[in-house]
Amino acid sequence: MTRTPLFRWTCLLTLLAVVASCNWGERTGSRVALTPEQIRLEHINTIDSTLLSTILNPDSVEGSDTLASLSADAWMLIDDATGMVISQKYADEPRFMASLTKMMTCLLALENSNLTDTVRITEDVFICRDSRVRLGEGYLLGDLLYEMMLQSDNDAAYALAKHVGGDTIRFCEMMNEKAAYLGMESTHFANPNGMPAPDNYSSASDLIRLARYAMRDSLFAAIVGTTEKKVPMIDGRHMDCQNTNVLLSSYDGCIGIKTGFTRQAGYCLASAATRDGRTLYCVLLHSRSQRTRFSESAILLDYGFRIMKSVL
Asked: What are the pLDDT digits (tens) for 35-75?
């Protein structure tokens, strides 16, 4: 049976109606509005991996034939408004996530601290020593968040974890509590920065949940959408920071989010882009190189926007 554009549009409207209905509850015959946090959770829980195939044949859309040649081991691409999965590969399998871990670190710091708190780089958090921060430096928490997310600074993550949780162990407990709250069933955090550890892992689908949730925090979105920033220190100096996510400057509509790399995790990228009022999220894990994590994410996003144009 040939599916007409009207049929496709009807299917999409039906899904949108279902999503909208989640914003209301029934109690003794009267409507009760959900809280903003409940709406936020309902939104990230809306993930439909079967809808697209009922609307069109994804293989008929330009670019579908290139997806099989991507070097990444796993990914998920999703339309944020509807939760429709556009493309996925081993999206539910746990894998090392490298510095995509810092998305959770940033989120928890925003939720549990004041931006004007002073955070110092002390000996017990100056661990990796390959970071831009240096022993003895001090930052306002809000400024250090920019430095951590733009530069992917590992010791900044340790400093923030100590400040927020009191120590790294407690902070990791907070990370795992938040992961459970968000329904990230294939995720476990063992450190705040994603350095190699056998029990620090997640899946593309779980990281999509985290990304969609975190991007609804306006300050989180502002941080990961910043291309470059002069980050001030307490002593009056500043650090020039350039975002490691080159898609912010090379991909039309990119609004974030975070790069990651270790030998175990390969090259990873959580990204999001908005075009014509529609936002897509993509998480790509274990790509072959720094170049391919960006080029392959761009290929997936381009394919996703073509799919959505075909649907609409």
From this structure: 999 999 999 999 999 999 999 999 899 999 999 999 999 99
Q: Mind spelling out the 3-state secondary structure of 178-207?
A: HHHHCCCCCCECCCCCCCCCCCCEECHHHH
- The two structure tokens encoding residue 180: 């459970």
Buried/exposed code over 69-87 (b: 16+ C-beta within 10 A; e: otherwise) = ebebbbbbbbbbbbbbbbb
Q: Which of 89, 102, 162, 229 is catalytic?
A: 102
Cα 211 to Cα 107, 179, 255, 283, 288, distances in angstroms: 10, 12, 12, 9, 22
Answer whether 283's CB lies under 8 Å from 204's CB. yes
- Is residue 289 flagged as an active site residue? no
Catalytic option among 152, 203, 205, 297: 152
Which of 166, 157, 151 has its CA nearest to residue 121? 157
pTM for this entry: 0.91
- In this prediction, residue 128 carries a pLDDT of 84
308-312 contact pairs (CB < 8 A, 24+): 308/79, 308/86, 308/278, 308/280, 310/56, 310/61, 311/8, 311/12, 311/52, 311/55, 311/56, 312/9, 312/12
152 among known catalytic residues: yes
Q: Which residues pair with 240 in a beta bridge?
A: 230
d(CA 227, CA 301): 19
- Convert the pLDDT of each residue in 157-166 to its tens digit: 999 999 999 9
Catalytic residue among 87, 89, 99, 297: 99
Q: Report the alpha-carbon distance of residue 152 to residue 303 in Å, rounded.
A: 28
Residue 144 has pLDDT above 50, yes or no: yes
